[in-house]
């Protein structure tokens, strides 16, 4: 069971929802180091996609993925395409090492990774 807590910054509102089982339960996507972002009535989760095989004692994360939902309790998470690959964005990055990321909204409505 995964607990997801959502806090509205600048407000006393606190919403908590419980998700039972994995977000993508068909075994097609494994991820790590998720970060959440709430915009309006949509919850976004950004995470590295782990592509390591079952016998690999390491992670291989070539990209960051995004998932979103407007009703957490429904379990109807939408999968978004690959956001980016570390080596395409950061000159210092090594392929396969999409470490934990973070997304923040600026005051002008733009979002930054």
TrEMBL record:
InterPro entries assigned to the protein according to its UniProt record, in alphabetical order: Glyco_hydro_beta-prop_sf (IPR023296)
Keyword Transmembrane helix among UniProt keywords: yes
Keyword Membrane recorded: yes
Top-level division of the source organism's lineage: Bacteria
TM stretches of this protein: 27-47
Keyword terms, alphabetized: Membrane, Transmembrane, Transmembrane helix
Protein's recorded name: Uncharacterized protein
């Amino acid at each position: 069971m995964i607990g997801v807590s959502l806090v509205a910054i600048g407000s006393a509102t606190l919403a908590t929802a419980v998700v039972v089982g994995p977000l993508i339960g068909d075994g097609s996507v494994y991820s790590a180091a998720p970060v959440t972002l709430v915009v309006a009535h949509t919850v976004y989760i950004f995470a590295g996609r782990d592509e390591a095989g079952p016998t690999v004692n390491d992670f291989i994360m070539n990209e960051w993925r995004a998932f979103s939902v407007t009703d957490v309790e429904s379990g109807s998470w939408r999968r978004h395409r690959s956001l980016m690959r570390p080596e395409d964005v950061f000159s210092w990055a090594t392929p396969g090492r999409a470490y934990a990321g973070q997304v923040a909204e600026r005051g002008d409505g733009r979002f930054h990774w």
